[in-house]
Write the structure tokens for this entry.
Amino acid sequence: MNTPVQKVAAIHDLSGFGRASLTVIIPILSRMGIQVCPLPTAVLSTHSKYRDFHFVDLTEHLQPMIDHWKSLAVEFNAIYSGFLGSHKQIATVKGFIDDFRVDNQLVVVDPVLGDDGRIYTPLSQDHVKEMRSLIRKADVITPNLTEASLLLNRDFPQTISNQQIKDWILELSQKGPSIVIVTSVPEEQSRGVTSVIAYNAKDKRFWKVSVNYLPANYPGTGDAFASVITGSLLTGDSLPIAMDRAVRFTSMGVRATFGYDYDPDQGILLERILDTLVAPVQTVSYELF
């Protein structure tokens, strides 16, 4: 694919207020030098953490937009999906991946389903079932621990051993994706520390990046993490370097925001830290797991 700037088809929702989904993804990938071509799955007045949000399901509009792109013979270096407005959209996304698949393309699926052991309010078990089929088409998936348990139809664990998380990740990888990255994994022996654990089926190695937990919850951090992973892999970083960049960026966003008297539902102060995305790698904290 001969293009001066790499293109990503970003299949996500658009929330008008609150830094999440496309309002996080577009600035991050753009700052990393990548053109974002959004295919919005839904439009929301705010993200779903706010009460009484207005939700516009764009399911019936997806295929006409896709057909127009096909008529233009658009090609993408990566396809990156996240929150889908209904389980019916998943078949459309699978068709999109099939229609736009080209050589050396990266397909990233962030299986947005839930957090803290619970499925998100607008979603159903049908959505979970369909998401299990979508990850089969991915090269990379980035579930949190809740989403990993839902994809595997397991009970959410309050604690999980190193061997158990490895077994879960291997099982997810066997469903299709060559790279599985699970976030929000509590450290087996260290309270107050969470980890990101990843596996690459090509070299059969596990990697871990740990971070100290702060008592704060900001929507959109999962979108920020998966976006940095996508941009880093697309621009040539190894898996452990991409993990390290994503964890550092997300953690920095939380720390840059935490000290303010600020509504946390607005998300991290993304604008304060975007320039760090183009800083050279200086120190790393990843380790073999």
